[in-house]
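JOB MANIFEST
job_type = single_chain_structure
chain_count = 1
residues = 251
[input]
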Amino acid sequence: MNVTLIGSGLIGGKLASLLEAAGHRVTVASPSRGVNALTGEGLDNALAGADVLVDVSNSPSFAPDAVLQFFRTATAKLLAAARAAGVRHYVALSVVGSDRLPDNGYLRAKLAQEALIRDGGVPYTIVRATQFFEFLKGIADSAGEGMRVSSALFQPIAADDVARFLAQVVEQPPRHGLVEVGGPERLPMHEAVQRALDAGGDPRRAVGDPQATYFGSVLDDRALVAADDAAIGAITLEHWLAEAAGSPAPR
């Protein structure tokens, strides 16, 4: 199968390796390789002969207006190029909770991206994933002085598990809808952040606060939790932290 992968970041790099190991021909398309989804540069060549387009691209700016403009513009250009190339399956990575937090600029932009794909005329599967373990320190850093972090439940997942699930979706027929993937545990956000800080030797203390915002949004216990029928990753936070620290994973 010929797969064109838009984006070469955290998920893109892992996914490309998995697909190549499974015997697929992978074209990684990113600005550093002369392909720019925002301007359309190089898209036609990158998609020539592609059976599947996987979109794991991300905006260089998370400012609300900029991220919305990025996903609207890039997704429209990707869809046009995919239609012209006869792509049979458009797989896009989105975020669990994108339809539940309308005051969050980034998630509004992802919801706009999803709508374009649904109406884009290319068979598709949208994969919504929960927050990555890899971003826990970023959540801590965003809390600022006082380290007040939401105490709402969420369901973080390892990027490796997200990449593995995406690889499975690539090999399956289009769902013409949404699927979700989440981590194996639901726990208060401030507890997960504290465990990550402790594992990294960071002396900061996360204070659980139900009114603390997550990038501008106050959360409840459902906002960032995957659906009951979601696929579940295998890597626990405990295992991921141990591996990240170079320690033997607990049994």
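[summary]
The chain is about 35% helix and 20% strand.
The mean pLDDT is 95.
exit_status = 0
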